[in-house]
Amino acid sequence: MEMLSGIDLRGSWHEGARTWQATSDGGYALAGYTWSFEPNGYYLVKTDGSGILQWSKSYESNYGASGVIQTSDGWIFISWD
Q1: 0.85 cut: is pTM over it?
Q2: 51 and which of 7, 12, 22, 73 could share a cystine (Cβ 3.0–4.6 Å)?
């Protein structure tokens, strides 16, 4: 397993990745939590292969995401406990 480090999630307060998945374009999808962005809760981040942020999205919840998967047609889904 390759270790991901130094990825800037661009938050001002607190967020973190709980899980990640290599994506078909050579990048990464990271899923976790945020308290820096509205809405607070699930946080999904897509980076390129160098860890440069491509896009991010937060979803309202009292919990964070605990799983991420990319389907064969390119969709990215998150799951939670």
Answers
A1: no
A2: 7
Domain count for the chain, please give it. 1
Asked whether residue 3 is domain-assigned, the answer is no
Question: By residue range, what is the domain housing residue 47?
Answer: 15-79
pLDDT tens digits for 44-73? Answer: 889 999 888 898 888 887 777 878 999 999
Q: How confident is the model at residue 9 (pLDDT cuts 50, 70, 90)?
A: low
Q: Which pairs count as long-range contacts for 17-25, CB under 8 Å and 24+ apart, including other chains?
A: 17/43, 17/45, 18/64, 18/65, 18/66, 19/65, 19/66, 19/67, 19/68, 20/68, 21/68, 21/69, 21/70, 21/76, 23/70, 23/76, 24/70, 24/74
